């Protein structure tokens, strides 16, 4: 369907939202078009544009935009800050999309810490750091609002130490109870449990939430959208994101602020100057945890990046998969292996990968015990090379043994990193 915006009814964790509009209805920018089901986990969906509802199906509400769009939006009607956050439909904008109002409904008794995840953990992605440099005062205001809501006694902004400009912008405006913790430049230092470990020196069990450490972890863009909802009465209708890779401007990494939700991916790439003639796949998200997408998909609340990857290299006849809880999982690695034209000889899992409620969790994210045994098992299974999804430390350990076994190493991030002219994830140093 040409020239329409698509709003997914299920965005983030929880139940799909229920349509609050009808076909042919006229809607305004900021208007609620789908409600979170009563007494269920989920979020409201608002239109990012003014236009006419063209279709409502099981998964999306399709809206044709007016020729002229205004910056104004339908303001939130709730009075209490937490109610505004809930009404705004804000969810976590750096991960799976957990409803923010639910997370911030907890009130600490005694000591409590808000940990702002400003790590920009995935390589290539850069919009959180640039937002920090652009709007430090608004981010600080968002943190203060969250501290008031949760009765937190302190807040810590967790950010990689090499982001000096962003740190300087924040430092000039920091109030007494908000501090900065400089993270090492490794992946996955932005994992929720890694943030707790780095900032509070507490290693949570794989099934524990940050509340077990008297902490709440919240993504930096989510903090900014909280400020907008509470102070500006603005619903979540826009998204910051990074667009990169095999563009006409080859290898470019471009940051965009306040892109309207519901925009088709192809239109987003057009704004970035268009995609080059050859590319391997479209990745929604970052190089490590991103998923394969289509140019016909639509921008959602959880979309943080769009990468046109390098054309797939031809792989060996047989390849072994080494799955890490911190990176691409078995299904994604299998997809990449198939695109390389390789048959899967065997699958091994990092010894720190523990299954919790159907998903893999690392016992100590980013700190690896060694992978020699797993790589040897893949070679014994007939693998002529290994395809890994490992974190920085795990990748280092694989590189310490696989070449000695005459096994070439491929990484799930290769297509993204090559497309952006960045160093491949192989032997990596931990730096600040």
Short description:
The protein has helices at 81-88, 100-103, 127-134, 136-150, 164-171, 192-200, 220-232, 265-271, 330-339, 372-380, 392-399, 414-419; strands at 5-8, 18-19, 26-27, 32-35, 45-46, 51-56, 60-65, 113-117, 154-160, 178-183, 215-219, 238-245, 253-260, 282-284, 291-293, 305-308, 318-323, 343-349, 353-356, 359-362, 386-388, 409-411. The chain is an alpha/beta fold and 432 residues long.
Describe this structure in words.
The structure is a single chain. With 432 residues, the chain is α/β, with parallel strands linked by helices. Strand 6 and strand 7 form a beta hairpin. It is built from 12 helices and 22 strands. The chain is globular and about 65 Å long. It has 4 domains: 5-65, RNA polymerase II/Efflux pump adaptor protein, barrel-sandwich hybrid domain (OB fold (Dihydrolipoamide Acetyltransferase, E2P), Beta Barrel); 81-232, Rossmann fold; 238-308; 318-419, 3-Layer(aba) Sandwich (Rossmann fold). The protein has a 5-stranded mixed β-sheet with strand order 13-12-16-14-15, sandwiched between helices. The chain has a 4-stranded antiparallel β-sheet with strand order 1-7-6-3, with no helix packed on it. Strands 10-9-8-11 form a 4-stranded parallel β-sheet, with helices on both faces.
């Amino acid at each position: 369907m040409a020239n329409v915006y698509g709003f997914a009814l299920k965005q983030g964790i929880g139940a799909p939202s229920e349509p609050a509009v009808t076909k042919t209805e006229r809607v305004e920018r900021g208007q609620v078009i789908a409600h979170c089901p009563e007494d269920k986990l989920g979020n409201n969906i608002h239109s990012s544009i003014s236009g006419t509802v063209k279709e409502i199906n099981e998964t999306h509400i399709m809206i044709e935009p007016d020729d002229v769009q205004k910056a104004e939006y339908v303001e939130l009607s709730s009075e209490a800050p937490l109610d505004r956050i809930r009404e705004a439909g804000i969810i976590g904008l750096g991960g799976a999309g957990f409803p923010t109002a639910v997370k911030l409904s907890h009130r600490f008794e005694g000591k409590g810490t808000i940990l702002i995840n400003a790590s920009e953990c995935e390589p290539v992605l850069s919009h959180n750091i640039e937002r920090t440099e652009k709007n430090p005062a608004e981010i600080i205001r968002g943190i203060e609002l969250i501290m008031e809501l949760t009765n937190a006694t302190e807040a810590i902004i967790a950010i990689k130490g090499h982001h000096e400009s962003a740190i300087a912008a924040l430092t000039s405006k920091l109030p007494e109870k908000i501090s900065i913790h400089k993270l090492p430049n490794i992946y996955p230092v932005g994992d929720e449990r890694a943030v707790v470990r780095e900032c509070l020196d507490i290693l949570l069990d794989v099934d524990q939430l940050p509340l077990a450490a008297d902490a709440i972890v919240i993504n930096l863009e989510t903090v900014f959208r909280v400020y907008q909802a509470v102070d500006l009465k603005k619903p979540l209708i826009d998204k910051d994101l990074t667009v990169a890779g095999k563009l006409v401007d080859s290898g470019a990494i471009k940051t965009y602020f306040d892109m309207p939700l519901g925009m088709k991916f192809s239109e987003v790439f057009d704004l970035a100057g268009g995609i080059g003639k050859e590319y391997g796949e479209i990745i929604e998200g970052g190089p490590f945890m991103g998923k394969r997408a289509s140019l016909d998909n639509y921008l959602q609340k959880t979309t943080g990046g769009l990468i046109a990857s390098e054309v797939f290299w031809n792989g060996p006849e047989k390849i072994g998969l080494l799955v890490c809880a911190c990176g691409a999982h078995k299904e994604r690695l299998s997809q990449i292996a198939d695109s390389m034209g390789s048959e899967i000889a065997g699958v091994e899992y990092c010894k720190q990968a523990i299954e919790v409620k159907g998903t893999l969790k690392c016992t100590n994210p980013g700190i690896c015990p060694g992978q020699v045994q797993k790589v040897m098992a893949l070679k014994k299974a007939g693998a002529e090379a290994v395809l890994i999804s490992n974190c920085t430390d795990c990748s280092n350990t694989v590189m310490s043994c696989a070449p000695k076994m005459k096994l070439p190493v491929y990484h799930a991030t290769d297509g993204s990193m090559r497309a952006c002219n960045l160093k491949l994830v192989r032997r990596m140093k931990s730096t600040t």
